[in-house]
Amino acid sequence: MKRAFLLFPLFLLLAACSDAPAVGEAFDGNVNDYEGVTMTVVEGTAYPGAVTVEVLNVTEEEIDSGNAADFGLQVEQEGQWYWLERKKSDYVNTAEALIYIKDEPRELTFEWGDIYGTLEPGHYRVTKRFFECREPGNHLDFLLASEFTLE
To answer: What is the C-alpha to C-alpha distance for residues 117 and 104, in angstroms, rounded to an integer?
Structure first.
């Protein structure tokens, strides 16, 4: 019993030092509902601090997005997706735009250690907002997501 009592403070210290992001609000929107543009996790690239995805546009439309730092993370719990909360609200993100040319796959690596912390084992998805350019000043936004599991 005494040994367990001595280990309890160590357990509390380790729990308090967890780098995992907090679970935030439930997600109630739509993802992957723009026909002809996909985002998929590249096999073998999902780690507690990063993942690589491939974005493919097979439409005739000009599809754009922000850079690789412009993404979000969600966790699945009991069949519902929840946003993960960012640990840092101020992080470096340059303002360049990426253009996705028809039939030219592009890989993006999302690294979140500084923004979210380290993910624990679980089922996650990375999200990224894209837009279809139309006439000047007019565009259609859509959200793509790609799931991955950390064990």
So the answer is: 32
